Amino acid sequence: MSGRRSRPRQSSGTTRISEDQINDLVIKLQQLLPELGDSHRSDKVSAARVLQDTCNYIRNLHREVDDISERLSELLANSDTAQAALIRSLLTQ
Amino acid sequence: MADTEQPPTNLNRSSTALVRRKKSLSASSPSSSRGNAASVSTGDGESHARWRSEKQHRNYSAKLIQALKQVRRGSSSTFSAAATSPPPMAAQKRGKAVREAADRALAVSARGRTLWSRAILANRIKLKFRKHKRPRRTVIPAVTTVVAVTGASSGGGRKRRVSVVRLNKKSLPTVNRKISVLGRLVPGCKKESVPVILEEATDYIQALEMQVRAMKSLVELLSGSAPPPI
Questions:
Q1: What is the per-residue pLDDT across B24-80, written as a single tens digit (0 to 9) for each?
Q2: How far, in Å, are A7, B139, B218 from residue B160 at the CA level?
Q3: Chain A interface includes B179 (CB < 8 A)
C-alpha cells in the first residue's frame, strides 16, 4: 500500500487517526465490493484500488437506482389498466 | 375478525412476497442476520446485519410504498391537469421524484444514525445554501497546489497559504484524493475526515444495495402481472 508513511503527519484535529484503523475500514469496505470481496485476495489489493472500485461501484448503484426509478415512474403512470387494482391495493393501506 | 384483518393481511402478503423475493435475490444472507437484528452491540457485524435483516426490508418497503403513493398522487393530479404533456419529459421528472422519494425512504429507515441519511433528509431544505458554498471550497486546493510548485520561494504570504493547505491531507497523495472523491459521492461527506468517510461509505453501499433490490422487486411485481401497454 503506497499510503504507509513512517514519519508522523499532522492531522487537522486533535486526535491522531491511526493507520491501522484506516486499514481496517478499507478492508471492511473491500469485503463489500462484489469483485474484490473474496477472501483469497485479502492481502494483494491496494487501498487505492479498493477506493477506486468503491467509487465506481457507488456510481453504478446510483445509475441503477436512477434507471429503476424511471421504470417505476413509467409503470406508475401507465397503470391505468388492469393492474390499477393491484397498485391500489399496494398503495392504499 | 375477518374484516379487520383483511386489509393488513393483504398488504402483509404482498409485502412478504416482496420480502421473500428480495431475500432470494440477495446472494448471501447468513442465518445469523435474523438473530443479529436485535443485538446492536457488535460493531463489525452490525452494519452487515442491519441492512440485510428481514425486518429492515419490510420497514423499507413499507416506507417506499408510502412515498411512492405520495408521488403518484402528486403526479396524477398534474397528469390530469395537463393531458398534453409529452411522456418522455414528464417521465424524467417523475423518475427523479421517484428516486428522491426512494432516497428519502432509505434515509428514514437508517434511523438517523448515519451522516448520509441525515444529509439526504436535510438536503431537501438546505439545497440552496450548499450550492453557494461548495464551488469556492473546491477551487482553493487546486489553485494553491499550483502556487506551491512555483511560489515556494517567492515569499511569506503564499507560503502561509501553502502550509495551511498542506495540513489538509486530502489534497496530496493518491489514496487521499480518492477518498475525497468517495466523500463527494456519499451524500453529506464532502468535508469529513478519512475514517468517517470510509465508515459512511460502507453503510451507504449496503443501504444502496438494499434500495436497488427493493425497487427491482417492486418493478417486477408491478410489471410482471400485467400485459405491456400497447
A1: 444 333 333 333 333 333 445 566 666 677 767 766 777 667 666 666 666 555 555
A2: 22, 17, 56
A3: yes
